Amino acid sequence: MNPKDWIAGLERGLKVLEAFGEDAPRLSAQQMADRTGLTRTAARRQLLTLEHLGYLATDGKLFWLTPRVLTLAQSYIDSSRLARIVQPYLQRMAHGLQETTYLSVYDNGSVIYLARQGPSRTKSIGYGIGERVAAALTAAGLMMLSYLSEEEQAQYLANYDIRNFTSQTISDKSVLADLMKEPRAQGFAVSDSQVEIEYRGIAVPLLDHKGSLHGALSVTVSLLHETREAAIKRLLPTLRDTAVSLRNVI
């Protein structure tokens, strides 16, 4: 990028917004400076500007995100060509399989769910639209991680902060390194009990006619009523057929 076109203030403002999270829902100017590498004065100016614009609220000392931040994410989801194209296919899959189906994309070590469809008989389970989950914890994430280069996979593992959500969550990075290589070769990924103990995910890559990866199609099912092999046999043909149907339209 031409340095003349770079807006450093915008970069700093976005860095401030991204600094908030589950582990840091409310931050002071000094805490923000520590997390972003800004000076305390620069961090405070960014915080006050974002508060003035309505993206943050404050009690005079601590700052936190407001619901207005969601308009940024919603704008992307509403304008996503990929989500609009794939949604009818998810509906057909959900109706035929009677399971919850998803479209997700990879972003900086995480899976983001852009669209989902569930049969009316199911309760609201699984991931919501816009939800971000560590890629290693999901079938869709493992599928997309397998398309990274060896260097990118190594970097992902180096940065991956392991959190055990269930007794089955994989916490050995050497095991994850092997798992990340399998899906691309076999054409699908399976993930059991990584975030919720009773659920399994099965995913296939979403490729265009040139073979470029755009995301992943996946299904979340209960693992209480069928074996892993039976679930793959039942779900994988529909997932693959749908992915093939999308190759020339995405």
What would your notes on this structure say?
It is globular and about 60 Å long. It folds into two domains: 3-66, Winged helix-like DNA-binding domain superfamily/Winged helix DNA-binding domain (Arc Repressor Mutant, subunit A), CATH 1.10.10; 80-246, 2-Layer Sandwich (Beta-Lactamase). Helix 2 (29-36) packs across helix 3 and helix 5 crosses helix 10. The mean pLDDT is 93. It is an alpha+beta fold and 250 residues long. The protein has helices at 8-19, 29-36, 40-52, 70-79, 81-97, 139-145, 150-159, 173-179, 182-186, 228-246; strands spanning 56-58, 63-65, 100-107, 110-117, 132-134, 189-192, 199-207, 213-222. It has ten helices and eight strands. The longest helix is centred in the last third of the chain and has 19 residues, at 228-246. The strands form two sheets. Strands 5-4-3-8-7-6 form a six-stranded antiparallel sheet, sandwiched between helices.
